[in-house]
Design a protein that fits this description.
Layout: E1 16-19, E2 24-29, E3 35-40, E4 45-49, E5 61-65, E6 72-77, E7 83-88, E8 92-97, E9 104-110, E10 119-121, E11 127-132, E12 135-140, E13 145-151, E14 159-162, E15 168-181, E16 190-203, E17 209-214, E18 219-223, E19 234-236, E20 243-248, E21 256-261, E22 264-270, E23 278-283, E24 290-295, E25 302-306, E26 311-315, E27 319-324, E28 331-336, E29 342-347, E30 351-356
Antiparallel strand pairs: 1-30, 2-3, 3-4, 4-5, 6-7, 7-8, 8-9, 10-11, 11-12, 12-13, 14-15, 15-16, 16-17, 17-18, 18-19, 20-21, 21-22, 22-23, 24-25, 25-26, 26-27, 28-29, 29-30
């Protein structure tokens, strides 16, 4: 393993941690960094107001939903931080309004027996999209009504991603990716066909590239030309196993892409010669399956987390700096605070851990 460096990005020990009822399935920060939410496999949902004084997360915590013994699997805040939505195994989407003195449930959308596994908010408006079997529904939190229902047709929806400008909604599943224009939901979607299923899709910040992984362990980087994809995507192969996570740096000029598969973390950068395409470099810091990778906002500082509880921190997207101290347990969620001053992680034992920026690391970018 790499030797520790003296200049640390984060304090090695968590500033605070709490233990929830079960395996933590999802975490989310609000864009203004005020709220942190977490959900568990037992159906528990909590909200932490990080603007309250003190370091103790338990004193900042509000229970939005007590354990129900039915898993909550997706969680997200609206772009303005006013709304929080959740979905899970019980086939219900719940929406909370956080604008008042205390959070209030605004609506419970009952969708029958369909497991809600994917839910994403529009990047600028108070609309959210979620998978519903072979369909995607878009709802407005303001009106608490359906905006549109989109039929994916080929299979159950496996991935959903809004274009960063909110003009398009990309949906992945068996047979490839469909992209609907928000300006006219009734217009036929753009179809990017694949001989397999698109399992995970992520746009870069500028919306110029969409990365997709398939169930055959293939990665495609597709260039978005404004109204369609370039017909010849870049193809990356040879991964040791399932592609578990992606993230992009927030640079619009020269974005970096990070992927995790097996114990490998790979940094991808586009070559100056477009005929060469994207080149990858494996960075070594894990001996176990890496489930999560995340760039600190507006930097090339990277966090990667594995199933043995190891969280590694890198600078310049490749230079190992430190490992954070955690209990030995599978990391099940990892996310930087939008302001970049904190990192939160959760594990299979229900522990939620929060690290803060080290005074030594404030100069890192």
């Amino acid at each position: 393993m790499p030797k520790p460096k003296t200049n640390l990005i984060l304090n090695a020990k968590p500033q605070s941690q709490i233990t929830l009822s079960e395996y933590i399935t999802a975490i989310a920060w609000s864009s203004n960094s005020k709220y942190l939410a977490a959900a568990t496999a037992s159906g528990e949902i909590i909200l932490i107001d990080d603007t309250k004084a003190g370091k103790d997360l338990a004193q900042k915590q509000v229970e939005l939903q007590a354990p129900t013994e039915i898993s909550v699997d997706c969680l997200g805040f609206s772009a303005d931080g006013r709304w929080l939505a959740s979905g899970g195994q019980d086939g219900k989407v719940r929406v909370w309004d956080l604008a008042g003195a205390k959070p209030e449930i605004a609506s419970t959308i009952n969708l029958g027996k369909t497991w809600i596994e994917h839910l994403v908010w529009h990047p600028t408006s108070s609309e959210f999209a979620f998978g519903l079997g072979k369909y995607v529904q878009v709802w407005s939190a303001e009106t608490l009504d359906i905006v549109t229902t989109l039929h994916f047709e080929q299979s159950t929806v496996l991935a959903i991603a809004w274009h960063p400008r909110g003009e398009y909604l990309a949906v992945g599943g068996d047979g490839g990716i469909k992209v609907w224009a928000a300006q006219d939901w009734y217009e036929d979607p753009i179809l990017f066909e694949m001989p397999t299923a698109a399992a995970k899709i992520v746009w870069n910040l500028s919306g110029e590239y969409l990365v997709a992984s398939t169930i055959d362990n293939l990665v495609l980087v597709m260039q978005w030309l404004g109204k369609d994809f370039d017909a010849s995507p870049w193809r990356m192969q040879g991964f040791p196993g399932k592609i578990r996570d992606f993230d992009w740096t927030t640079s619009e000029i020269s974005p970096l892409l990070v992927s995790s598969s097996g114990s490998d973390v790979v940094i991808w950068e586009i070559h100056a010669d477009l005929n060469v395409g994207w080149e990858g470099e494996v960075i070594k810091g894990h001996n176990n399956i890496v489930g999560f990778v995340a760039f600190k906002p507006k930097t090339e500082i990277l966090a990667s987390a594995d199933e043995n509880g190891r969280i590694a921190i890198w600078k310049n997207a490749k230079d190992w700096v430190q490992a954070l101290e955690t209990p030995m347990g599978e990391i099940t969620a990892l996310q930087w605070q939008p302001q970049g001053k904190k990192l939160v992680a959760a594990n299979a034992d229900g522990q939620l851990m929060l690290w803060t920026e080290s005074s030594q690391g404030k100069g890192f970018r």
